[in-house]
Design goal:
The chain is an alpha/beta fold. The protein has twelve helices and 17 strands. The strands form four sheets. It has a seven-stranded parallel β-sheet with strand order 2-3-4-5-6-7-8. Strands 1, 9, 12, 15, 16 and 17 form a six-stranded mixed β-sheet that branches. Strands 10-11 form a two-stranded antiparallel sheet. Helix 4 links the parallel strand 3 and strand 4. The structure holds pyridoxal-5'-phosphate. Pyridoxal-5'-phosphate (PLP) binds next to helix 9.
Length: 374
Amino acid sequence: MPTHSANGRLTIDLEAIVANWKKLANKASHKNCAAVVKANGYGLGAVEVSHALFNAGCREFFVATVEEGVELRKAIKEATIYIFSGFNRKAAKTYKSKQLIPVINSLSGIADWQSYATASMKCALHVDTGMNRLGLSESDVSLLADDQEPYGKFNPSLIISHFACADDPGNPLNNQQIEAFSHAASLFPNARKSLANSAGIFIGKSAHFDMLRPGIALYGGEAVNTVNNPMKPVLKLEGRIIQIRQAKKGESVGYGACGKLERDSVIAVVGIGYADGLHRSTSGAGTPSRTYFSQPGIAGMIGKHKAPLIGRVSMDLTTYDVTDIPSKALADADWIELINNHITVDDVAASAGTIGYEILTSLGKRYERIYKNR
Ligand SMILES: *Cc1c(COP(=O)(O)O)cnc(C)c1O
């Protein structure tokens, strides 16, 4: 277990997550908003996040796997827990004993479920509307709708589908998926219906159906491209400054001697690296960090001063050019902030050529985790 001596620290603001959940819920007239907490709550702690949301009134949670469902059930007795990956025969008994609701994704999954489940056990159904990932195809769905044996008594309580391009509001596939979903879902008049992930919520009421299903926006991440992110930042990520060193013009920093010094420099050596989810590509292989800094590669902040990364990210260490930071501010600083209210998780992602989802779910196990407003 990481302790207070950890070289990395995550501060997760549960009140901000709750505020984001409420904001999303309020976009729909029915205000019925579940929470997607798969992959350990996008890296931020499924149990802690779900507790906070449950206390705020959220009752329905989605995870990816049975194991994640079991962990969440331990923490919250009364929650409704859906398993995106469907019904896994190897864990059949667990669905009943832990009251986990499979989101069934195929005809064979329905057959498995029907051979196992008793009448009181609930299930959900995923229909594909254009993603070609999980879910019944249109022709599969019509088999069900015709009540053909062996599917005659199949009676899901929830129908879902998933957007492929909701992050791009102008994409014509969005409306096609809404129409395909309306049609497929109308064949199950007794089931509730859910289509919108975070980005889908911003498409508007036509995408809201009976339940919203956000993940990334709860955690403050950017859901929709090209618009200002309206969600509250949730995460502060800090690395401990473990050494300050002086280096001469003409010398270099780090592996590959990539960080060439064009002046006598002061370097802060920080104790987190790619093993902590600060991808090596944040050295600047992607596009420059967007909103706050203009150089390629990530940058940190020491107090209000900015410090660009210099050299390559290594496994346990990163190095920052702190030459321009006043020596008093530097002497007082124990930590550098790499994600905060100014540097978003999506800024870091852009530097690495990836998306905020991947940065969050890559955060390693070595951090001290501090939950604010628990
Ligand atoms: C992950 C996931 C979500 C949540 O998506 P976000 O883009 O994070 O809001 C919703 N539905 C399904 C099926 C998912 O796999």
